[in-house]
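user: Here is a favour to ask of a fellow structure person. I have my own habits and do not want them to colour yours. Could you put it straight underneath, so I can go through it closely?

assistant:
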Amino acid sequence: KTETVKDLAKAVATQCVVFNCSEGLDVTAMGQFFKGLASCGAWSCFDEFNRISVEVLSVVAGQYLTILDGIRSKKTLFTFEEDEITLNPTVGAFITMNPG
């Protein structure tokens, strides 16, 4: 799954960052990660996404929705968590989950 995302990114000449999720992942860390992705237009594959707590998942969904709304509105600058950042519309997020 992860290798497929990496291979697809390579095929379209896009940087892909693999991020291994853990139980200790918090909203602040994800927000910083999304800011970097959105500003440079890279893809990320969030590996073992199911390990993130439900409370954090709820906020992460809202964070990514903010990025998607900016892309749909064709914005080049947008507000993300009280910071105005540039938005590169090639940004993408993919997830993999393992049972258990």
